[in-house]
Every structure is written in structure tokens, then in C-alpha cells.
# Entry
Amino acid sequence: MATSTAPADQITGLFRNVRDHVPADLWDKQIGLLMRDHPYDSVMAARVLGQGYAYLLTAMAHRDEHLGLGPSSLVDIGVHTIVLDTVAYAELCRVHNGGRFLHHVPAVEFKQDGTVPRTAQLIAAEGWEVDLPLWADAAGCSPCHPGNDSH
# Structure
């Protein structure tokens, strides 16, 4: 896999690249799935998928910390595309989560507790680029189960 990084401003330096953690054929397949199932062109699909991976990789890096992370509604679409491809998702968990499965445990009610902005801040602190417009759609809420290490 390539080891390129996206350009960044002088304060944050270079960003980590999610594409370094996703096989090219899988990335292309998941972009295709997003375009099939949502009104996205390839650019929007790549933005949503990239943020979904940044979210999941951050959550995996902080397993057992019970931070209650949660994505915005748009980023959640990317996350669902990733986790629904269960064979590939199991491999992602094997490589990046110590072999443990990061479960999907959605809550019925949306939380209005600042989860989404805190999650975006943690993703940025982990060195991933945060595509702010994709996180702003639900700035105060998330459907994820509070206080556990699941999505």
C-alpha cells in the first residue's frame, strides 16, 4: 500500500492516510457500494468512506477506554459501509483492534451530549484529517451506545 500523506497546515504537520490501511481493491469496492446506495459521486463517497475509516481506526486505538465515541450522521454512512462488509471488517479488527471485534451497538435515541465534536477532536489528535463539513451535520448528537467501546 502507498505511504503518501495528505498536505496539512504548518500547525498540524502531515496527516495519516487511511488509504495506507485499506487495500486498494477493497477501497474501490466500498466506494462503489456508497455510490450505488447513496446519491454520491466518487469524490463524496471517498470523503465519507475516509472519515468512516478514520473514526473506526481511532475507536480501535482507544479500545478499553470507554470514551463513548460516535460519528456524525454522514460519517456513520461510511462506517456502515465498512462494517457491513463483514469479512473485510473482521480483518480490519484483527489488524487494528488486537483481533477483537469492534461491535456495532446503535442506540435508538440520539445523544445530545457533544459526542460528535469530541470524537472529531480525538480523530484529529490521532493525526487523521477531519473533514469538518461531514461532521457538522449532527454537531451535538450521535446514535451510538454511550460509554462503551462499540460503534
About this structure: Residues 1-12 have pLDDT under 50 and may be disordered. Residues 18-144 form one domain. The beta strands are 106-111, 142-144.
